[in-house]
Amino acid sequence: MEVSGTMKRALISVSDKTGVVEFAKGLAEVGFEIISTGGTKKALEEAGLAVIGIDDITGFPEMLEGRVKTLHPNVHGGLLAKRTPDHLSQIADQGIQPIDLVCVNLYPFQQTISKQDVTEEEAIENIDIGGPSMLRSAAKNHAFVTVVVDANDYNKVLSELKEFGDVTTLTKKKLAAKVYRHTASYDAIIADYMTNLVEEHDPERVTFTYERKQSLRYGENPHQKATFYVNPLGSKFSIAHAKQLHGKELSYNNIRDADAALQIVKDFSEPVAVAVKHMNPCGVGTGSTVLDAYKKAYEADSTSIFGGIVAFNREVDEDTAKLLHEIFLEIIIAPSYSEEALSILTTKKNIRLLEVEVSDKNKQEKTITSVAGGLLTQDQDTYTFDNATITIPTKREPSEAEWEALKLGWKVVKHVKSNAIVVTNSDMTLGIGAGQMNRVGAAKIALEQAGEKAAGAALASDAFFPMDDTVEAAAKAGITAIIQPGGSIKDADSIKKADEYGIAMVLTGIRHFKH
Hints:
Layout: E1 9-13, H1 20-29, E2 33-36, H2 38-46, E3 51-53, H3 54-58, H4 73-80, H5 85-93, E4 101-104, H6 109-114, H7 120-125, H8 130-140, E5 146-148, H9 154-164, H10 169-197, E6 211-216, E7 226-230, E8 243-246, H11 252-265, E9 272-277, E10 280-286, H12 290-300, E11 309-312, H13 318-324, E12 331-334, H14 339-345, E13 352-355, E14 367-371, E15 374-378, H15 400-413, E16 421-424, E17 429-433, H16 439-450, E18 458-461, H17 469-477, E19 481-484, H18 491-500, E20 504-507
Parallel strand pairs: 1-2, 1-4, 2-3, 4-5, 11-12, 12-13, 18-19, 19-20
Antiparallel strand pairs: 6-7, 8-13, 9-10, 9-11, 14-15, 16-17, 16-18
Helix pairs in contact: 1-9, 4-8, 8-10, 13-14, 16-17
């Protein structure tokens, strides 16, 4: 086992003091002198430990409201000196002693800006300067200095010190790598905050930071490795922040499907049930209760929902749970479950029950898509019917019932892979055509699924009709109202065809591609 020289001094300065007293006691037991600052020094002294103040090391008082206390050669010289005769001679000439271990965690910037009422001044004051500087110095000199930024590593460090008299070289390297991940994440959050503060929408550089939530058994397929990371400041109304109440561990595909379901749920204020299969909705129903909504979502496609995911925006009650229990589902997502519902649903060992906070629905996050060698970012597609510039180019306008069906179709179609066609009535989907290479092909799938229910129903298209064949197919199936963006050079042909069949057509001017 490769180890480096004997340690003598540890510098401890932490904002999160979880476990730090026990750690410092363990270090003292193996012969360390403890150097500390501020609140950490006080906590250690109250625990009966002998502590050297940082100003005793620097010979300089803390100043500028604590902004300057560890930024001093007596600290950084002790951290950065190699344990070579030349370096040791140089710091000795300046009266500097080596520091062999650094235990630092940083001002709580992330927690500070997470508060709803945080001021800019408060946020800025919680940008740590001395802490990252010490961490980076110690991590650079990790061949000689052990650097600890995570309380989860306290026991390992103490264990190796007791067993080997030092921390092993491999562990030091791992700890140093963790430090750089930590400081990079810290700076990324600050950079994002400052960028948003000045409303810079297209910065020349962008750095994202995510925290590991769980290691997954595999990715889309068993031969692919995968990990689930979450945005620490992301929306709580998300699969990333869901609480799992029951069932097997989530898989990669489970997570993606669950996310797709929640994105649809977010667009509804009335009770809604959304069934998803392979990233596309297979059934969406609304009603006065979740039971009513679920019945419609199930009826929309009772075949595809099998083995799928169902999401709600209201509590799952006993009656709804009884129906959910009747079929095989991978996941159920809801803001809460009644005790009776949980007792029913948990009788199935493997079904995943997720609880998601229905909040901050309008919090906007960039969507990020990876490509080989890079990534794409874009704003979320939050355009709704209310944002649209509505025109009605046909002779007939929609009836009140048709308007409701058109609005539902327009909500759902933006969540369906392009080319996308959705057939609806006023409170449920009747047919969904997703991901086809031509629009009329998507329409044929949706209309075939709707069958006789297409008569008197509405049809929604995520993009314009390049020719009138989709309108022709819709008319022959009995569709009476169509909503689409418009904008084709052949719009007139589609409008004329709609008029021939007495179809009311609504143009929104908004496209909803989803690739």
